[in-house]
Amino acid sequence: MLIIFGGLPGVGKTTIARELARQLGAVYLRIDSIEQAIRDCDKMNGPLDESGYCLAYAVAKDNLLLGRTVVADSVNPLRVTRDAWAGVASLAGVGKFEVEITCSSPQLHRQRLEARPADIVGLRVTWEEVLSREYEPWNREHIVIDTAATSVAEAVADLRKAFVERAT
User: Which of 119, 151, 164 is nearest to 9 (CA)?
Assistant: First the structure.
């Protein structure tokens, strides 16, 4: 199965996606890591546009075709990126679960963003960048987890339960 995460930087998406991937023994793909690796190669002179996403789509498809579960961790801000992830699952002939991570408390969201350690060298996101980021509302069924009211352990348990319920 393909588990597709989305949500603004700083909401807790990566923490939840990593823990879920660890528990499931799934392949974990993080767009931030892929995009930073591209930048670090000094091959990109301009904006990355969709390069990181395109690479992740290909790696996800390869692993899905091998029968692996894939957890895709990205802001996933636009319908076009969400549609592309859905297309990967369709091409691989597997099910998909779309998960949006939110934080309903702007104060807590900002605090988390500004306090979190940079785990990717060279990548730092500011609160102003989060506020100005284009992020389209989701227009189809998906699971929503609000981290202002849900711990990481609760979020992962809720997701695992939802996967089982949807599979039956």
Answer: 119
- Count of domains for the chain: 1
What range defines the domain where residue 161 resides?
A: 2-167
Tell me the pLDDT band of 119, cut-offs 50, 70 and 90: confident
Predicted confidence at residue 115, as pLDDT, reads 87
Please name the residues in contact with 26: beta carbons below 8 A apart, sequence gap of 6 or more. 3, 20, 68, 69, 70, 71
* Residue 31 structure tokens: 């767009």
Using one digit for the tens of pLDDT, what is the confidence trace for 27-76?
999 998 888 888 777 655 555 667 889 999 999 999 999 999 999 999 99
CB contact at 8 A, 1 and 86: no
- The secondary element (H helix, E strand) that includes residue 165 is helix 152-167
- Of 159, 142, 1, the C-alpha closest to 79 is 142
3-state secondary structure string across 75-141: CCCCHHHHHHHHHHHHHHCCCEEEEEEECCCHHHHHHHHHHCCCCCCCCCCCHHHHHHCCCCCCCCC
Contacts of 21 (CB under 8 A, 6+ apart): 27, 28, 71
Model's pTM, two decimal places?
0.90
Q: What is the CATH number of the domain that holds 144?
A: 3.40.50.300
